[in-house]
Amino acid sequence: MTARFDLQANELGAKAARRLANVSMVISQSPLPQSLQELVSLRASQINGCGWCIDMHTKEATAAGESATRLHLVAGWREAEVFTDAERAALALAEEGTRLADASTGVSDETWDAVRSYFTDDEVAALVMLVALINAANRMGVIVRKKGGSYEAGMLAAAVG
């Protein structure tokens, strides 16, 4: 399967991508821990099947100090004992916010209450924006069949520069 379209090579696509990258940088600079941001982005990307984003967030998580064990277990976080309760709440939000069509209620009250109990208002704002943004990025990557494997940690930050 080959890539269908290079959004970065298109003037309009590149302009819009820069705006999304700027939003990503605002979230990155929030009080939400960088490692958790990467785990949340990785989990949503796994669900959506975006190879480019899985590649990016695995490498960024590693650069942020995340262990290989936790990265390998993020897809099965419910059955792993290496995540804190706060991380579990964030991963549940990522899953439910990604699979909106799978539940008539969207994000459950139970998940929302857990998120609110572990995170400050700024961290909640960052989590909500992060889940929405990674889902948008995943959809673009999957639609144009952007391939994973060539990402290097720091590439996104360098592009926004």
Task: Sum up the structure in keywords.
single chain; 161 residues; mainly alpha; AhpD-like; 8 helices; globular
CATH topology descriptor: AhpD-like
Using DSSP, what is the number of strands? 0
Q: Which segments are poorly predicted (pLDDT under 50) over 5 or more consecutive residues?
A: none
CATH superfamily grouping: AhpD-like
Calculate Rg over CA atoms: 15 Å
Average pLDDT confidence is 94
Q: What does this 3D model show about the protein?
A:
It is built from eight helices and no strands. It has 161 residues and is mainly alpha-helical. The protein has a single domain, classed as AhpD-like. Helix 2 (34-48) packs antiparallel against helix 3 and helix 2 runs parallel beside helix 7. The longest helix has 24 residues, at 121-144. The mean pLDDT is 94.
Topology record:
Layout: H1 11-28, H2 34-48, H3 51-63, H4 68-73, H5 85-98, H6 109-118, H7 121-144, H8 155-160
Helix pairs in contact: 1-7, 2-3, 2-5, 2-7, 5-6, 5-7
Keywords: Oxidoreductase, Peroxidase
Protein name: Alkylhydroperoxidase AhpD family core domain-containing protein
Domain Carboxymuconolactone decarboxylase-like: 18-96
What is shown here, in short?
This protein is mainly alpha-helical. The protein has helices spanning 11-28, 34-48, 51-63, 68-73, 85-98, 109-118, 121-144, 155-160. The chain has one domain: AhpD-like (Up-down Bundle), CATH 1.20.1290.
